[in-house]
Amino acid sequence: MSAMGLKHLFTSPAFNGFEVHLFNNIASFQSTLNFVPYSTLIYSLSDEREERRNCLVCIKGLAASHGMIQRIVLASDEKEASLMNQLSPSRLHGIILKSDPLAALQEQLSKLLNENRRVNDSINNHWNIHRGRLLSPTERAILQFMSCGYSIQEIATQLDRNIKTIRAHKFNAMMKLGVHSDVGLLDAADILTHFPVPDHRAPRFLPALHS
């Protein structure tokens, strides 16, 4: 979504109480964090793996340093929304599809922003999946090892599991992520390359708002 498109998104009267700041890179946004009281970060993705990784790194850092800032992602399509929901290392307050009609986008965004104003910690949207459908720690670890170039045999050794168990976890991860090949799975796993592999051996625009 272009800068013009994002500005148009906030033309609804529902956003009159907010001031919008647009950034075309993470560094310029981060340079303002200590003196602008943002209430929300909205990260607009560009349907590229590198941008997804950058988004997750940014959101993870923001959750650690400024946990009260609401974190919303604008995803290009349903697949990207599912990947971000499954792989995010920190909690997202909402994922919205940019492909939705403008009125629907404005309605969803307005709802999330108003929920945040009431400090409602149970914010969800239709992309938040039941915990039983999220990747398990082992499935996430397998993806991370795969993104680092480990073979199934090497992953089994690292996690002290047999190969059949690792293959079963890999299959489950594919089903949850909605991919049907190793290529698709690696496309998802590649998002995790910036995050450390947990030790299981011991069982292009960022609008930021302030009100």
Describe the structure.
This is DNA-binding transcriptional activator BglJ. GO terms for molecular function: DNA binding. The two termini are 23 Å apart. The chain has a 5-stranded mixed sheet, with helices on both faces. With 211 residues, it is an alpha/beta fold. The model is unreliable at 118-132 and 200-204 (pLDDT under 50). Helix content is 46%, strand content 12%. The protein folds into 2 domains: 3-117, Response regulator (Rossmann fold); 133-194, Orthogonal Bundle (Arc Repressor Mutant, subunit A), CATH 1.10.10.10.
Strand order of the largest sheet: 1-5-2-3-4
Shape: elongated
Q: What is the helix fraction of residues, given as a range?
A: 40-55%
Profile the largest sheet. Answer: 5 strands, mixed
SSE order, as H and E? HEHEHEHEHHHHHE
CATH topology (level 3) name of the largest domain: Rossmann fold
Radius of gyration: 18 Å
Number of domains: 2
Short characterization:
With 211 residues, the chain is α/β, with parallel strands linked by helices.
Task: Please specify the SSE layout and strand pairing.
Elements: H1 3-9, E1 19-23, H2 26-30, E2 40-44, H3 49-65, E3 70-75, H4 78-87, E4 94-97, H5 102-117, H6 137-147, H7 152-159, H8 163-177, H9 182-189, E5 206-210
Helix pairs in contact: 6-8, 6-9, 7-8
Keywords: DNA-binding
Protein name: DNA-binding transcriptional activator BglJ
Domain HTH luxR-type: 128-193
Keywords:
DNA binding, DNA-binding transcriptional activator BglJ, DNA-binding, 5-stranded mixed sheet, 211 residues, Rossmann fold, alpha/beta, Arc Repressor Mutant, subunit A, 5 strands, elongated, Tscrpt_reg_LuxR_C, single chain
